[in-house]
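Quick one, probably user error.
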């Protein structure tokens, strides 16, 4: 009986360690032509990472890329635009909110946000971004849930 409880205890401790660890881990986002009822979409529209974490974008479907939106990143962050059909990655060393889109599908709702270090100090800049068409429709709710 005692042994059983000990095992339970060890299992719950390791689960706890695992889950707290995974919250601060790197993220992988798929670039997709279709997900449920949406087409042209990043598999996760919002991810939260710690400073120094890396986000990987997988070119699961072809014809997509990642482009940071001008004015939609923390001050001092350089331009970032990846090649079509290629997996991409970026290591986030500056805290703040990053808004990006897929260049050819930026008006089709293919947008995403990364919050780094739980820092939302540039949220006002994010709200000023000019989104187009379907992206314009979905952006406010996404920005409100950052
Ligand atoms: Cu795309």
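Nope, works fine. Designed sequence:
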């Amino acid at each position: 009986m005692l042994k059983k409880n000990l095992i339970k205890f060890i299992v719950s401790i390791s689960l706890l360690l695992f889950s707290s660890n995974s919250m601060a881990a790197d993220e992988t986002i798929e670039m997709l032509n279709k997900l449920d009822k949406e087409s042209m979409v990043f598999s996760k529209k919002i991810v939260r990472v710690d400073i120094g974490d890396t986000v990987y974008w997988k070119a699961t479907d072809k014809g997509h890329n990642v482009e940071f939106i001008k004015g939609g990143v923390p001050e001092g962050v350089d331009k970032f635009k990846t090649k079509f059909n290629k997996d991409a990655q970026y290591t986030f060393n500056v805290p703040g909110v990053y808004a990006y889109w897929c260049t050819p599908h930026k008006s089709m709702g293919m947008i995403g946000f990364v919050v780094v270090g739980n820092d939302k100090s540039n949220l006002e800049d994010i709200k000023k971004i000019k989104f187009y068409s379907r992206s314009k429709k979905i952006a406010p709710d996404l920005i409100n849930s950052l």
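The pocket of copper (II) ion is lined by residues 40, 64, 102, 104-105, 110 (CB under 6 Å).
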